[in-house]
Amino acid sequence: MSKKHLLQAALQKQQKIRALESQLETAKDDYCKTVRDLHLSGMSLREVATMLKVSHQRIHQIVEEGNKRAYSWLRPINPDLRCSFCGLSSEQVNKLVAGPDMFICLCDGCAGTCSQVLKTGMQVGTDDNSFRLLDKAERLRCSFCDKLSGSKRDIVAGKEHQVCAPCIEISLKHMKENKLHPGA
């Protein structure tokens, strides 16, 4: 085979791998959501584990991971924190949401802009602070949840960070509700 044919074959295989990785990630997310839904429907962790023939500890991890993700955002914000996208401090914006490990923050203005980019698919902002929808081929992860972009996960990129559609949605929801996690 010629170099050109080998390169084309390699690119096709690479594309297939990316598609399969995306399908696998989606399948894992769907599985974990369904396990949490089983538990929320009234089944005990042990019942779910027995029916799925997995360890009780694994089911516990899946359920707790979902709980952590849902509530880790609901906590008071340190006044020294800044939006990781625009650089404004928590005192300069109306609301600021911290990511799960508080290494990244998103203000209400940037969350709204990201939402606009998701709806229109158009780049928004100036060269210094622009937001664009990532191409599916770009293998960047959401700075909040660490999930890869894929066929079912759109990601908006800022200057240095990225945020996926589900994290934007959660951020906007919590900003609207203005709840804080007790004891955080």
Question: What would you note in describing this structure?
Answer:
- The chain has 184 residues and is α+β, with helices and mostly antiparallel strands.
- The chain contains five helices and six strands.
- The chain has two domains: 3-71, no CATH class; 96-177, no CATH class.
- The chain is 48% helix and 10% strand.
- Strands 3-4-5-6 form a four-stranded antiparallel sheet. It has a two-stranded antiparallel ribbon with strand order 1-2.
- Residues 179-184 have low confidence and may be disordered.
Concise summary:
The chain is α+β, with helices and mostly antiparallel strands.
Structure characteristics:
184 residues; alpha+beta; four-stranded antiparallel sheet; 5 helices; disordered C terminus
List the helices and strands and how they pair.
Layout: H1 3-40, H2 45-52, H3 56-71, E1 96-98, E2 105-107, H4 108-120, E3 124-125, E4 130-133, E5 155-157, E6 162-164, H5 165-177
Antiparallel strand pairs: 1-2, 3-4, 4-5, 5-6
Helix pairs in contact: 1-3, 2-3, 4-5
The general outline is flat
Strand/helix succession? HHHEEHEEEEH
Give the low-pLDDT segments: 179-184
Number of domains: 2
Gap between N and C termini, in Å? Answer: 62 Å
Average pLDDT rating: 81
The profile of the biggest β sheet is: 4 strands, antiparallel
Q: Strand order within the widest sheet?
A: 3-4-5-6
* Number of helical elements: 5
SSE-based structural type: alpha+beta
Q: Quaternary status of these chains? A: single chain
- What's the alpha carbon Rg, rounded to whole Å? 20 Å
